[in-house]
Amino acid sequence: MVAYKKQTLVDYTAVDAQKASAVQKTLLEIYNSNNAFDQAVVKSLVQYVDEQVKDATVDVDANLALLKLFLVYPDSLDKAVVIKVLAKAVMALPSQFFSGANTMISESLREDAAIQNLLAAGYHLQACAFEEFWKVDLSAATKIAGFTDASYSSISTSVLKSALNISDKEVKDLVAAENWTLEDEIVKIPANEDNQVRPKKDVLKVIHTLSR
C-alpha cells in the first residue's frame, strides 16, 4: 500500500491577495493582462513549481499550463522541471492532475528513463498495483520534498475506497476492526511482516538458501 502526505490544492487565480506569495502575485498580474501563454511566463511558472515543492502544495492548472508552454516553446523545455511536475502529480493521486500531465508529455520526453519511470509509477498507483510501484526506479524524484515519504504501512482513504469499492462508513468500520488508525484521510497500518521491506542482506540469504 502506498500513500503520500496530502498535497494542499491551490489556485493562484483565486488566492487571497494578502496571502498570495510573490510568485503568485506575478502570475496573477500576467493572467489578468491576458498574456498567460507568452513564452516569458515560463520563468515564473518554473519558480512556482519550486514553491509548490517546498510548501507541499499543488496548483494543477498552473502546472498543466507550464507543460503546455513547454510543448508550444520547446526551446524553453527543462526536463528537471518536468520531473518535478510529474512527481507532484504522482503525489497528488488520485486527483486528475496526473492524467492531465500525462497527455502533455511529448514523445521525445517519453524516451527519457526518468520520465518513463515516473509515468509508470503513476500508472501503477492508479491501478493500485502497489508491488509494481515499488519496483520502479524513482531515484530522479528523491530530492523532491515528501516524495520518499511513501510507505507500505499507509494508504489514503480515497485509494482504499477505490481499491476495495467501499464507502466512507465501511472504511471506518474496517479501520476499527483491524485496529488501524485514521488521520487526515490517511489510514495507518501498524508494521508487520507483510508491509515492511526486507533488508537486502535478508533477501540475499533467502536466495542463497533456495539455491542449495
Automatic annotation (TrEMBL):
<dbReference type="InterPro" id="IPR016024">
    <property type="entry name" value="ARM-type_fold"/>
</dbReference>
<dbReference type="Pfam" id="PF10075">
    <property type="entry name" value="CSN8_PSD8_EIF3K"/>
</dbReference>
<dbReference type="GO" id="GO:0006446">
    <property type="term" value="P:regulation of translational initiation"/>
</dbReference>
<feature type="domain" description="CSN8/PSMD8/EIF3K">
    <location>
        <begin position="80"/>
        <end position="200"/>
    </location>
</feature>
<dbReference type="InterPro" id="IPR016020">
    <property type="entry name" value="Transl_init_fac_sub12_N_euk"/>
</dbReference>
<dbReference type="InterPro" id="IPR036388">
    <property type="entry name" value="WH-like_DNA-bd_sf"/>
</dbReference>
<dbReference type="GO" id="GO:0005852">
    <property type="term" value="C:eukaryotic translation initiation factor 3 complex"/>
</dbReference>
<dbReference type="InterPro" id="IPR036390">
    <property type="entry name" value="WH_DNA-bd_sf"/>
</dbReference>
<protein>
    <recommendedName>
        <fullName>CSN8/PSMD8/EIF3K domain-containing protein</fullName>
    </recommendedName>
</protein>
<dbReference type="GO" id="GO:0043022">
    <property type="term" value="F:ribosome binding"/>
</dbReference>
<dbReference type="InterPro" id="IPR033464">
    <property type="entry name" value="CSN8_PSD8_EIF3K"/>
</dbReference>
<dbReference type="GO" id="GO:0003743">
    <property type="term" value="F:translation initiation factor activity"/>
</dbReference>
<dbReference type="InterPro" id="IPR009374">
    <property type="entry name" value="eIF3k"/>
</dbReference>
